[in-house]
Structure formats: structure tokens, C-alpha cells
Amino acid sequence: MSKEPTLFEKAASFTKAAIKHIASGMPKLPEDKTKIRLDICESCPEVNKETPNWTCTKCGCNLKIKASWATQDCPLKKWPANT
Q1: CA–CA separation, 67 and 36 (whole Å)
Q2: Is 80 helix (H, G, I), strand (E, B) or coil?
Q3: Tens digits of per-residue pLDDT, 8-58?
Q4: CA angle 31, 66, 68 (to 5 degrees)
């Protein structure tokens, strides 16, 4: 597992993701599709599962939120955005 991004890097990444999500009308995925994404994340060595909502060490995002936002994609290209 890579070293997690700094707090500033996490804030910048989340802000970028939130702006994209809001600008797109805040589309969310159904629970079954979110679960598929989280199942992929669960087996990824770049996920810190010691945090309550799992943190991606590549983008620094809270994965249990990011995986539910349809406009988001995995920085490692393990799952695409659903737009």
C-alpha cells in the first residue's frame, strides 16, 4: 500500500470530485452498483480499510462516498464513471 496523500491533497481531491458530482446534478449509483465498486476496492492493495469509510491511497478519497457517486472513477482504472 502506498503512503496516503497529505490532508491538503485529500481536500483538493475531494473538492474536485465534489464539484464534478454537483455540476453533474449529483447522480448516485444504485446500491447494487455501488457494492460492485466497493467489492473491487476491497481487494485493492491501495485501499486503507483501517479508516471507517476506507481511503484510497492514490486519490485520498473516502471510498464509501466516492463509489456511490456515478460521475466518479477509480484513479487506477478499476471501475469507470457511469455518466
Answers
A1: 9
A2: coil
A3: 999 999 999 999 999 999 999 999 999 999 999 999 999 999 988 899 999
A4: 15
Q: How far is CA 1 from CA 5, 22, 25, in A?
A: 12, 30, 33
pTM over 0.85: yes
Neighbours of 3 (CB within 10 A): 6
Question: Would you state the cell numbers that stand for residue 25, as one nine-digit string?
Answer: 446534478
Residue type, position 31, single letter? E
Residues 6+ apart with CB under 8 A from 5: 13, 57, 59, 60
Q: CB atoms < 10 A from the CB of 4, how many? A: 16
